Amino acid sequence: MEQLKELGYEVTYLPVDQEGRINVADLKAAIRPDTILVSTMAVNNEIGTIQPLLGVAELLKQYPKIHFHIDAVQGIGKGIQNMIMNDRVDL
Q1: Is the alpha carbon torsion for 63, 13, 57, 23 positive or negative?
Q2: Is the CB of residue 31 less than 8 Å from the CB of residue 63?
Q3: 12-63 pLDDT per residue, tens
Q4: Which of 5, 6, 2, 31 has the alpha carbon at shortest distance from 14?
Q5: What is the maximum alpha-carbon separation in the chain?
Q6: In the chain, where are the structural domains located?
Q7: pTM of the entire structure?
Q8: Which sign does the torsion angle of CA 40, 46, 52, 54 carry?
Q9: Which residues form a coiled coil (predicted)?
Q10: Torsions phi, psi of 39, nearest 5?
Q11: What is the CATH class of 2-84?
């Protein structure tokens, strides 16, 4: 994200709840006409929180020009395969 900032992109970070989870409604509110990317971890490597990937993917169906990136490396063995094998996930 820092490199994107250096290239002149505006980066928005969402708040998380006490378990480190984003709220899909907060994401929807943060999307602007110039939004091009949503990026999230599937599973937090420190506390194990699983993000609402299916909810994010469903929301992003309304925004086909926004790329959806998931860092899923910590999700191996956590049962997230069906969440990341979604036609709305780009990377």
Answers
A1: negative
A2: yes
A3: 999 999 999 999 999 999 999 999 999 999 999 899 999 999 999 999 999 9
A4: 31
A5: 37
A6: 2-84
A7: 0.85
A8: positive
A9: none
A10: -130, 135
A11: alpha beta
